[in-house]
Write a structure and sequence with these properties.
With about 180 residues, the protein is an alpha/beta fold. Helix content is about 20%, strand content about 20%. It is built from 4 helices and 7 strands; from the N terminus they run H-H-E-E-H-E-H-E-E-E-E. It is elongated and about 55 Å long. This is Phenylacetate-CoA oxygenase subunit PaaJ.
Length: about 180
């Protein structure tokens, strides 16, 4: 049976790796520029081996078009911090989950006008039933909302509309 890794990875505690983590964690997501890859949980690990920085990132979706940009931005940030020979590795397993997002990141999403994911990622089991979720409007707070499209401005978001204030908004899907 597969075990789900449902928690964000902690920041390394040793000095050099922690410094690399801190630098990489500041890189902004190009699709939602109020979030860092640290906020998103896309940053999975940071190590220094033989003086060379190594960072691991995981995409929110396996086909996420922002990953090349994120990889380049992480490498540039590390080079500016003195790690010219840094490697940035993309890993797909375990798959990213919204459970890895920080509470600060969810707050930033809402302030930006995107409804943050609500709840934990459902664990799928044989015979499970899909249940509709209620998504609060990030503009007025109403729970009287409806999904317009399963896919919003990016694959990791759905497009909703508020029936109270009539504003459309993105919802960061629970994955």
């Amino acid at each position: 049976m597969e075990t789900l890794e449902r928690t964000a990875r902690p920041r390394p505690s040793d000095g050099e790796s922690a410094r690399v983590w801190d630098v990489a964690a500041t890189v902004l997501d190009p699709e939602v520029p109020v979030l860092t890859i640290g906020d998103l949980g896309v940053l999975r690990s940071a190590d220094v081996i033989d003086g060379r920085a190594h960072v691991t990132i995981t995409p929110t979706y396996s086909g996420c078009p922002a990953m090349d940009s994120i990889r380049t931005d992480v490498a540039s940030a590390l080079a500016e911090a003195g790690y010219a020979d840094a490697t940035v590795e993309l890993v797909l397993s375990p798959a990213w989950t919204t459970d890895w997002m920080s509470e600060d990141g969810k707050r930033k999403l809402e302030e930006y006008g995107i409804a943050p994911p609500s709840g934990l990622t459902p664990v799928r089991r044989a015979g499970s039933i899909r249940v509709a979720i209620t998504v609060g409007c990030p503009q007025c707070g109403s729970l009287d909302t409806r999904e317009l499209s399963r896919f919003g401005s990016t694959s990791c978001k759905a497009l909703y509309v508020c029936n109270a204030c009539h504003e459309p908004f993105d919802y960061f899907k629970v994955l």
